[in-house]
Every structure is written in structure tokens, then in C-alpha cells.
Amino acid sequence: RTGDLREKQFESMVSATKRVRDYAQNITFFDQPGISLLRLGAVVRQVSAQRKIDLVVIDYLQLLQAEKTYSREREVSAISSSLVALARGNGVPVVALSQLNQVGDIRESQAVKHDAYGVILIKYDQDEFPEDTSDVPADIGVVKHRNGMLGRVPVTFERSLGRFVERRGW
After folding, report:
1. Strand 94-97 and strand 118-124: pairing?
2. Whole-prediction pTM value?
3. What pLDDT score does 139 carry?
4. Residues contacting 63, CB < 8 A, separation 6+
5. Which helix (H) or strand (E) element contains residue 166?
6. What is the DSSP letter of 167?
7. CA–CA separation, 128 vs 140, rounded Å?
8. Rounded CA gap, 4 and 1, in Å?
């Protein structure tokens, strides 16, 4: 924060940079807003022809484009089922991030929750974050898991580091 690093901090930063560099060789970012499902499938097939894909992450499900229908709910439902087909057809897990509506349901279509193998929700104790950079209490809950346990873990979102840490002693 101050721009000054002690020797140990500098060594730690260099070590972390080397680890990120090693991982970065195996990460492909494809940043195209409004990509169609057909194009996404083609990209996944193209990359998997070159090397093994371990995971596909979609950030954010509702930005994918489906064939236009008379209802956004049906479009999101089509996106959801297409992602299931993409995962199965390419033998790769797909993680799709989505917002919740105001009552805590997956936004625009319950088909997303229905199609998913698992659903993890992050719920914050507060409706709004304070203006400062203070940490925020939250819960990470597994609300659907076809072959596993459900539950929740109380966490704290450390805003300055952009990470969640488990709260002890709950």
C-alpha cells in the first residue's frame, strides 16, 4: 500500500509471480461479451484439440447469447441446457456464475438450478457493503449437490485482498 517492501515481502511476491507464471501456461482466457453458444462450443473444441481442458468457467451466464425467443426465461433455460451438453460432449466440467434475484433465486430461470449438478450460493450478512474497505461477513452454502452433502460455511470476504476466509469458532 505504501510502495515500500521489506526483503521478505519482495521474496514472497517474486515466488508468487513465478507460481502464477507456471499456472498461466495452462490458462486460456477468452473474453468476448455476448458470445453465442455455438461459438463457445467451437472455442472449447478448438482448445481441447490442442490440449486437455480441465475446467471451463463462464462469467457470467446471462451474458451468453441464445437463439431469441419470446421470453428471456426461455433463453436462459436454453443456455443452461446447452452448457450441460457442452460439458458432457467435451468431458469437461463447466462452472457458470450467475446473479440471484431479490428473493435469492437464480436470476431469470429456475432451469439453471434444475440443470446444474451443484449450486453454491454466496450470501452476505448485509444487504449493501459499507463505503469503506472493511471485511464483510458472509456464508457460502452448497444448496444443491446431486451426489454429495449440503451445508454452509461461514466466511469473511476480505475486500482488500478479494478473497473469502473461513470464520473460526462458529
Report:
1. unpaired
2. 0.73
3. 92
4. 33, 34, 35
5. strand 163-166
6. P
7. 17
8. 8
